[in-house]
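Researcher: Going back to the complex we discussed earlier. I've cleaned up the inputs and rechecked each line, so this should be the final set. Can you rerun the prediction on the complete assembly and write out the structure?
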Amino acid sequence: MPSLPPLHELPAWAALARHQGECAATTLAALFAADPDRGRRYRFEAAGLLVDLAKTHLTPATLGRLGDLARATGVEAWRDRMFAGEPINESEGRAVLHVALRDRSGRSYRVDGEEVGPRIDAALAQMATLVDEVHGCKRRGAGGRPFENVLHLGIGGSELGPALLVEALAAHHTGGLGLHFVANVDGHALAPRLAALDPATTLVLVASKTFSTEETRKNAETAAAWLRHGGGTVERQMVAITARPDAARAFGLAPDNILPLWDWVGGRTSLWSAVGLPIALAVGTANFRALLAGAARLDEHFRTAPFEFNVPMLLGLLEVWYTDFWGAGAHAVVPYDERLRRLPAYLQQLEMESNGKAARRDGSPVGVATAPIVFGEPGTNGQHAFFQLLHQSERLIPVDVLLVARPDHDLPGHHDALLANGLAQTQALAFGQSDAVTHQALTAAGRSAEDIARLLPQRRFPGNRPATTILLDRLDPASLGALLALYEHKVFVAGAVWGLNSYDQWGVELGKVLARRLAPAFEGDTPPPDLDSSTAGLLAELLARR
Amino acid sequence: MPSLPPLHELPAWAALARHQGECAATTLAALFAADPDRGRRYRFEAAGLLVDLAKTHLTPATLGRLGDLARATGVEAWRDRMFAGEPINESEGRAVLHVALRDRSGRSYRVDGEEVGPRIDAALAQMATLVDEVHGCKRRGAGGRPFENVLHLGIGGSELGPALLVEALAAHHTGGLGLHFVANVDGHALAPRLAALDPATTLVLVASKTFSTEETRKNAETAAAWLRHGGGTVERQMVAITARPDAARAFGLAPDNILPLWDWVGGRTSLWSAVGLPIALAVGTANFRALLAGAARLDEHFRTAPFEFNVPMLLGLLEVWYTDFWGAGAHAVVPYDERLRRLPAYLQQLEMESNGKAARRDGSPVGVATAPIVFGEPGTNGQHAFFQLLHQSERLIPVDVLLVARPDHDLPGHHDALLANGLAQTQALAFGQSDAVTHQALTAAGRSAEDIARLLPQRRFPGNRPATTILLDRLDPASLGALLALYEHKVFVAGAVWGLNSYDQWGVELGKVLARRLAPAFEGDTPPPDLDSSTAGLLAELLARR
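Model: Rerun complete. Updated structure for the full complex:
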């Protein structure tokens, strides 16, 4: 039965609503002017990441009230329940223990009274053996030829994290394998990959918790036929990561080639499990362990740092602050590093699938806006695309700017230009440009008073737009582990304030059911009799055009 | 001086605001139930594209009122002014004539009294010659070796459109060249490309209207050094597309290798000009001309179709309808075709840079929400990421679903599954699932009444969420030309209603200025003295870590 009080009725919520009125009357520029030490005061460190919140509307008063909200909604208690292995994914009755996957300190994690550590260790050992055997050419493809490529099949959480990390860690690849990812059931994704790869020297990974995810299953079937047709075998060349080893064996996989998953690891946080096998194959086991260690360091920070310095806590509360009190409906993620190209897509899933919900864990309506729309492209590219809107529309959109201090290339001048651009954008967003400066420029260009009246508003930069800057020393396994764990916990914190179960995803179910109902019509069956006239018409058009 | 009346004060605007209250009281399901012919009634055709608007909240009454708004804001008159070559990009005093680039019917287009047709013909002929010479190995790289790869350098409009089309038209590639794009100043974008390519057999294209875009200029300098170091030459192996041939010549380019751009072609619509050279090199001149022809067909539709059947008109007005009257702050674009992977990024620029503005063309504030946040990933991938939010959060987010009837691969079963999913998502969004069905499922699963009270809201699919379905027969040059022109004109229509100049982008200027001011500090100079404490602190951290 519903039991959570409406958020609007919490005194902490009402206090923040009142407080926002005061905050809206000032500007970031004024906050900086009032406190010469603001930059240092709101620059934080967590697991080697440097996080600058000075260009957000954070003040001691705001921080105090956000702390009240966190306490009123029990965020720390929910965090502790997560680390304790309690079934906080209540709608599915599951624990949420991705933190256990990366904590190799010996700390105890239990699910239903059972230690999970030994299982994790065994899976890691199985991964390490597999990686060593492939890298060392002890495990080979058809005709005894060494593996040259890995084709990873998986979708959603089984693809976004591994694909992001394999690309981001390009400078750390070892073993010389080519890594390829196919998620979509669209044959235009798989066909060109199969055409470019040699079935004799390709290792195929299939990541699916149920081993029945339709896209992955279909791609696995086509890849299996391709292996066989090319003289290879499923038994030697296909590896599954799944919680259903029986289904994988029925598909023809060798028992040794089945790595485990558990119901206490959600898809969105599965890259730390054996789903991360493509990462380990790309960068080696030592680097994969460094990735886990980086995330574990951030977990420890989240678990133990005092509220005022707890970076994921602050980021999660800022998300609520901007979403519900400033009306921000979107959040831009702009990594100033081309290798983090897929970070926005990864975070889209993490934020929008975790917290894109309207019902709370007790079934009551959340009644306020939840997950923002997450979007982004790498800087500087985004500057030539959607930044126009960030600077000049009336929408307030918080921006995350990610900067990497040390590059992994030696082209002169490029990195300095990149970093100067990233920093400059945070300045432009926060402080804008005064109308006096714009007026001067227009006057200097000889424009008439009438022109200036028309053009000045079009060239106006109001500023006062928040940015969070995250600085990484290098793009290496440890810093990336910490970065992704930071975002995971941020999403957890915001979800806890909203009272959501961030770990289920019921909203993906109906589309699957309806797709299964429509599918036979494409194979010549009579369409379902109750189709609406739009769907029926489109179906007829599609069938007529084949 | 400001002269446009506030939008709120237009009778047509006020009528729509009242009308929305009535519309919000009904549902898409009710609209379908009331009109068995709804599917056919709101299925439109434009230049070979089939566009289904039946699953939006469009009714005859709404259409009438949107028509009133279009008339009140002079949308058709602005369209006619665009086609007439008037300087509708008023803040820069420029005509906007990308439509002339694709209309090879002999129709007259004039800028300042001068026919632009002959210039366009000459540029197309120069492109065709270059493509023929490269494909026919009459033009060769260093040591007389044929070109094998093309490296295109350009950012924003000089990259997004060409990169999208080269990938989307993979089935139409001819000539055997590898096409590569680098936009970002980040050396992590360029360095791996240079490492993978042979400077002797690579043709480098540099697309920059001013030839001084900082990212492109930096990449061109590095690429030029790479060519020379590898025994190649800028003179033979670099081609520029620019409105500043003098600057390109000063860079060392041969006059024959400089293709023109004009100030009446904006960056966002430049792929139809010589900026489309990488497309022509990938697919050949005939296919490039088919692309132009597809767009021209859509232009003709936009110019002449009656309002009620004018698809870009309807899409533009729907954007205003959902943005300003239904509070939609975002728009999802989900192409069910992996080859359209980059369409969302392309449309982000087109929509958010064109209409992400708060000041109207006369300098007055627009006073209402303008461009939505555009985001998306290919279907089915998006279903496993952000669709949770589309289905179950309280945000209303219109979705464009793109379906391609005939695939260009022969993997059995994949395409049927893909199309069934795309169609099913539009059903799920529009109609959701009744609580009775969910209740039945939970009861059948043996859940208690208490559990059901808690779980049913979490599994609720309210539906009544709008989707536009765009059906393409095949992904070929003509259909893609029509598709992109459709979106261009949609953005134009929405911008005209809002009173914006959709063709400037003042919001990108300040960041450039500030980046130039910060850059010397990275080379050891003293930082600017007036830096805020956040930027100063981050700069110090970055410098300390190098």
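Model: Worth noting: Residues 280 and 288 of chain A are 5 Å apart (CA to CA).
Researcher: Good, that matches what I expected from the previous run.
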